[in-house]
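subagent[fold] <- orchestrator: predict structure for attached chain, return tokens only, no commentary.
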Amino acid sequence: MYEWLRAEILIIIAGLWIIISAFCYVFCTFIRRTNVKALFNESTTNLNNEKRRVLFIVTDLCDLIKYFGPLFTNFTKRDHHEVYILCLQSCSGKKYLWYKFCLETFVNLTAIAEANVTFSWNQYFFEPLYGETHVAILTEMCLIHILQRNIDMVFTYDSDGTDEDFLQPAIYDSLTVLVKKNMLPENVAIYSLANSIGIRSILGLYDVPFASFFGYDLISEPMDILILQKLYLLLSTEYPAKSNYKNEYGNRFQD
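subagent[fold] -> orchestrator:
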């Protein structure tokens, strides 16, 4: 009898979860709000209708999926936006083939061009202690990347970051320097991820009922969830056991 009641309770909970998920999904599909906050100046930019050259600055491609996934998908699925990624990772040595494989898979599963993804690194980043030198290097790196590609909008972490990687708050600080010193063109808007907390990573990519409460823009098509989930599983794996690597690769890695 108790087992039957336990099964019935589980069925009821599952049913309620499906109903709540469906309601939140439909509700937030029609009533959208961005999941970012402006640095220092509020922007009234229409993220969906106006053509933009968008740059995501991350320290790991996996973070792009975990924390920027819905926003990234909404930009890439619209042909009139040009999306770029600056990933601060060291891809030298044995990691080269792994990140090459990740990039090829990433490009195949998304609408972003391979030439729009850049891995960049500086040997000073190996220093574990966060200091002004890191900010100075990142400030120059971000500025060059923004100017060379005529970027309109930049998205990155907030001042706390998402994990213990000191480069994440350093990115925020470097962009803060660019804004305070007026080193960017007037049309460039810089945003940091609001509520960039670990709960999204814990709940996974199927956290539809929670997304609206934490300020996340939702994915508008179920297929996007499957693509992001596949990318997340791939990128969160340290190294694949078996992968079909090619021998040649372009110049997307910059050390």
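orchestrator: received. Logging for downstream: The CA atoms of residues 62 and 232 lie 6 Å apart. Residues 1-31 form one domain.
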